[in-house]
Write a structure and sequence with these properties.
mainly beta; 7-stranded mixed beta sheet; 4-stranded antiparallel beta sheet; globular
């Protein structure tokens, strides 16, 4: 099994940057696709970014394309979300998730994820 712990959230001004980390346990982590989701107060949880087990394939929500990047370091058992040019509407709790399957963007939903972290809060001020 896989256990996930997010870190790196905090308060940042609009236009600034943050890098979130998701540390994983378990030797099988390397073979899981990894995903980032976020949930703002009173809103539905939404997809942010995805990366395949090899790191060779990624895709993003339209709302963050060109601003966010996702990467993974299997040697360090960690997945990263680099966020740049942050906007107030990016404010949310960010969650990382792991799944054995690689879903097309059109079919991805948070209910399909096998494992979840507890989340880290990102607040972007104007």
């Amino acid at each position: 099994q896989v256990q996930l712990v997010e870190s790196g959230g905090g308060l940042v001004q609009a236009g600034g940057s943050l890098r979130l980390s998701c540390a994983a346990s378990g030797r099988t982590f390397r073979y899981y696709a990894m995903y980032w989701f976020r949930q703002a107060p009173g809103k539905e949880r939404e997809f942010v970014a995805a990366i395949s087990w090899s790191g060779g394939s990624t895709y993003f929500a339209d709302s963050v394309k060109g601003r966010f990047t996702i990467s993974r370091d299997n040697a360090k058992i960690t997945v990263y979300l680099q966020m740049r040019y942050l906007k107030p509407e990016d404010t949310a709790v960010y969650y990382c998730a792991a799944d054995q399957d690689w879903y097309p963007a059109e079919q991805l939903h948070y209910s399909a994820m096998d494992y979840w972290g507890k989340g880290t809060l990102v607040t972007v001020s104007s």
